[in-house]
Amino acid sequence: MQAFELLRPADGLRFEIRSQIPLARGLGSSAAAIVAGLMAADHLYELALARDEIYRRAAGLEGHPDNVAAALGGGIALCPRAEDGTLPAPIRLEPPQGVEPILVVPAESLSTPQARAALPAEVPFADAVANIAASAQLALGIERSDLTLIGRGLADTMHQPHRAGLYPRSLELVTKAKELGAIGASISGAGPTVLVWCFWQDTGKVAGALEEHTAGWADVVRAPFDPMGADVPEL
């Protein structure tokens, strides 16, 4: 409702919300809710706001432009800031061909502030360089649909090791993902969900291995990339 009221008062309206996104699992549920509220107000009152305007308003409320951009535009989003600190339109990448994600969603939740508190104020220079190199390979791998580059680009030395004590089973799964037949894996957002990247022909086999490996403590969900983003089919 807070997002809705950025555009119009909600007096006299009743909101009924359904979401398949588990809360506090590192899956951007708050960003999706904010985008939904803004899209509903824009559609209901026929404001005809540009997507870039909805994006900026949502990012201002959410604080995570990357989550907002993906929920709004679909695909994979890069969200650089301009030199003056303003937020230009996100850069959208098409999902890599032949790649299908699987989510491993643990039963326990984790708040974003708690996950952030586990991170150090400073990181070693070598770790920063390694993550920059990995990010470049991941972006290029997505653009080229290069599975080798994607696998290399999932490496992380800046946040996952420091959060190992918060969700040890999730981190163990990240390290074992390739053994289970995946391209690789990473923690989704602040965690504890694990995002597993698979070649599409291997997805069923990998999902079965993950279900066996996580029985009793997590749900395994096949979650193909959505190329469309937010839409209001009826209201």
Topology at a glance:
Blueprint: H1 29-44, H2 51-62, H3 65-73, E1 76-78, E2 91-93, E3 99-106, H4 112-117, H5 125-144, H6 147-153, H7 168-176, E4 184-187, E5 194-199, H8 203-213, E6 218-222
What proportion of the residues is helical, as a percent range?
Answer: 25-40%
Note the beta-strand portion: 5-15%
Quickly give the CATH architecture of the largest domain.
Answer: 2-Layer Sandwich
- Give me the CATH superfamily of the largest domain: GHMP kinase, C-terminal domain
CATH class of the largest domain: Alpha Beta
The helix/strand class is alpha+beta
The number of strands is 6
Q: What's the N-to-C terminus distance?
A: 15 Å
Shape: globular
Q: What count of domains describes the coordinates?
A: 2
Low-confidence sequence ranges: none
Which sheet architecture does the biggest sheet show?
A: 4 strands, antiparallel
Q: How is the largest sheet built, in terms of strand order?
A: 4-5-3-6
CATH topology of the largest domain: Alpha-Beta Plaits
Q: Which radius of gyration do the C-alpha atoms yield?
A: 18 Å
Structure commentary:
With 235 residues, the chain is α+β, with helices and mostly antiparallel strands. It folds into 2 domains: 4-93, Ribosomal Protein S5, domain 2 (2-Layer Sandwich), CATH 3.30.230.10; 99-222, Alpha-Beta Plaits, CATH 3.30.70.890. Helix content is 38%, strand content 12%. It has 8 helices and 6 strands. It has helices at residues 29-44, 51-62, 65-73, 112-117, 125-144, 147-153, 168-176, 203-213; strands spanning 76-78, 91-93, 99-106, 184-187, 194-199, 218-222. It has a 4-stranded antiparallel sheet with strand order 4-5-3-6, sandwiched between helices. Strand 4 and strand 5 (194-199) form a beta hairpin. Helix 1 packs across helix 2 (51-62) and helix 5 (125-144) packs antiparallel against helix 6. The longest helix is centred in the middle third of the chain and has 20 residues, at 125-144. The protein starts with 28 loop residues before the first helix and ends in a 13-residue tail after the last strand. 34% of the residues are buried. The mean pLDDT is 93.
